[in-house]
Amino acid sequence: MPVRFHNTYSRQLEDFRPLDPTGKLVRLYTCGPTVYNYAHIGNFRAYVFEDLLQRHLEARGFDVSRVMNLTDVDDKTIRDSRKAGRRLNDFTQIYKDAFFTDLDALHIKRAQHFPAATDYVPRMIEMIADLERKGIAYQAEDRSVYFRLSKFPAYGKLAHFNLDELRPSGRVRSDDYEKESIGDFALWKAWDENDGDVKWDSPWGPGRPGWHIECSAMATALLGDELDIHCGGVDNIFPHHEAEIAQSECCTGKTFTRYWLHCAHLMVDGQKMAKSLGNFYTLRDLLEKGWSGREVRYALLTVNYRLPLNFTFDGLAAARAALARIDEWVSRVTDYSRRPARVSGQERQDAGGEEHDAAGSESTIDFDRHVESFFECLDDDLNISGAMGAFFDLVRETNRSMDANELRPAKAEEILRDWRRINQVLVLGKELRAIPTEVSALVEQRQAARAAKDWAASDRLRDEIAELGWVVKDTKDGPKLNARA
Ligand SMILES: [Zn+2]
């Protein structure tokens, strides 16, 4: 079965095929945080879903080239940096650093690129100038530059708006669109006194880019004109992603993104998360209350991304219990894998038993079925609840088999290998760092080199593995990997 996703464009499940002619490379763009505060757990729900997406694609053999932008100039960053009495860059740097610390706490894999909007302003200006030349952008009397919606009839195709029913109602200068109706949106915002010293020179006078053009510019600069997958939360669909499509497609003449994936809202105790309701949590708030990043990851990861996630402390407690069960299972299977395959005749006599394998008669349970089912569920639009069900079936049946003393060491070893594959995607194992696929590939190559007694290649591969931050140790049970401290 191919990997399938629900595409917001078509509102249908579609088989996924990247544009790349080899079918391997996936160009993935994910809208990142606005760095004016600590990201909250609603934000992290989207980032954890995107992490699952990337890891599952990699498990299925794709090479994912991912970009996540950092919005470090917009209405909010300017407003709050001025409130804090700090220069914009100094202010946003605090939250950029905090964001990376939080990503690590949740074991979210780093994107290849985290472009900051302020590093791409010349490209944004270039795109706006291009749109102006084409008659699509115009400078208004307030000196800001707007996108002429009437020039892009496809506007609304992602959000499935019927544009005939919507009358453009003036222009939207603010980045904060929640309460605005549809209208020509700002590409370039003319400087005013509220912006303080935040401004760039442009053909339209001093000012700064609008939020939407930031993503169009960074996405196309780093991934090319055509992306395979673009993600975000459902609240990004309109107007942000509509605007990204309009700007990018008018500049390039190509389809900007082929698959749009959006994750649903996070609620807390059944209510919208809001500071005024006292149910607003950053990751830091939860860590301070004694929950671990792994527990929060579990709670955010294990609900299907297109369903609303109701975050509760009972849910976190359930995550803690589930993780304890996984930890116990892993340690038990590990013990079984280390049992000697057969006890000696003397020991058998001492034990008074008949001649049989130390680990009992062989289990006939088809464990592989559950492992396959785990990955197949994820193929189906990242059905994580189905995948977790399959995984816990594996846990239950292995436990039963161990209770009956029927699990042979070789089989236990095999199950541990399966667990490592599963955990590359889940990253819920106790080892805080999952082994990256590129590292395990190198370890495999090195094992092959050793088998062929090619010691030079083996040493070179060991160095390559070390460069990626892992130490490989050869033991009688095969190579063991440890993350470098
Ligand atoms: Zn964006």
What is the count of DSSP helices, taking H or I runs of 4+ residues?
15
Bound molecules: zinc ion
- Tell me roughly what share of residues is in helical segments: 40-55%
Look at the structure and give the mean pLDDT.
Answer: 90
β-strand number = 16
Shape: elongated
Largest sheet: 5 strands, mixed
Strand content: 5-15%
Indicate the low-confidence ranges by residue numbers.
Answer: 177-181, 343-359
Gap from first CA to last CA: 40 Å
Radius of gyration: 26 Å
Output the structural class: alpha/beta
Report what the structure shows.
The chain is an alpha/beta fold and 485 residues long. The protein contains 15 helices and 16 strands. The chain has helices spanning 41-59, 75-84, 88-105, 121-133, 211-223, 237-252, 283-288, 293-301, 313-338, 345-351, 367-379, 384-403, 409-426, 437-451, 455-467, and strands at 4-7, 12-15, 25-30, 63-68, 137-139, 145-147, 171-172, 184-190, 207-209, 227-233, 257-263, 266-268, 271-272, 309-311, 470-475, 478-483. The strands form 5 sheets. Strands 5, 6, 7, 8 and 9 form a 5-stranded mixed beta sheet that branches. Strand 10 (227-233), helix 6 (237-252) and strand 11 (257-263) form a beta-alpha-beta unit. Helix 4 crosses helix 5. Residues 177-181 and 343-359 have low confidence and may be disordered. Bound molecules: zinc ion. The site of zinc ion has 3 residues, from loops.
